[in-house]
Amino acid sequence: MPLTNSTGRKLSHKRNISCYAYERDDGLWDIEAHMTDAKTFSIMEPFMPPLKAGDYIHDMWLRITVDRQRTVVAVEAKMDAKPYRECHGGGESLNSLVGLKITTGFLRKARARISKRHRCTHLAELLGPIGTTAHQALFNVNKEENPVRDGRDVLNSCYAYSETSELIKRRWPHLHVTVSADE
């Protein structure tokens, strides 16, 4: 379902983010994100290579390898296009994520491990999509080890899983909270 029609407008910037999850032969999982940014006009700025309309100002990859419990075991970042030559070092600080588990609070904990002055803002932005991609990919992976799901791990994590939602009432009635008409 597309968005409603907007007023007259002209495209200025285009960002694409794609995420991929791969189960590896060794039992680990590679969660990858690829981001590109392009302008619809040429850019001539000091300290940057000249860019024609449509050229990528950012073309970046981030791979986080996790185990079955979603614990980060390795991180790799690559930049095929970047605005400044100094940008290439911005992915190194992401190695501090090794040992962190992708679960509730992952993004907050990840940002706490990486100082702003040592990180690439754009690679750090990919941590959110990588976290949700990991969750989607590994949703049923440990089901045989943990077959009973009582819903507490998802309660209040989104609108549909709100403790007052009809979904919670149907799926996990023991978690449903009755709200008074005044709330």
* Sheet having the most strands: 4 strands, antiparallel
How much of the residues is beta strand, in percent? Answer: 15-25%
Radius of gyration: 21 Å
Tertiary shape: globular
Strand segment tally: 4
Mean pLDDT: 88
Number of helices: 4
Question: Which residues form runs of ≥5 with pLDDT under 50?
Answer: none
* Topology order in helix (H) and strand (E) letters: EEEEHHHH
The residue fraction in helices comes out at 10-25%
Class per helix and strand makeup: alpha+beta
Number of domains: 2
Describe this structure as you would to a colleague.
The chain is an alpha+beta fold and 183 residues long. It has 2 domains: 13-137; 149-183, no CATH class. 16% of the residues lie in helices and 23% in strands. It is built from 4 helices and 4 strands; from the N terminus they run E-E-E-E-H-H-H-H. The chain has helices at residues 106-113, 121-125, 127-137, 166-171, and strands spanning 13-23, 29-39, 56-66, 72-81. Strands 1-2-3-4 form a 4-stranded antiparallel sheet, with helices on one face. Strand 1 and strand 2 form a beta hairpin. The protein is globular. The mean pLDDT is 88.
Describe the structure in brief.
By secondary structure, this protein is of the alpha+beta class. The chain has two domains: about 15-135; about 150-183, no CATH class. The chain contains four helices and four strands, in the order E-E-E-E-H-H-H-H.
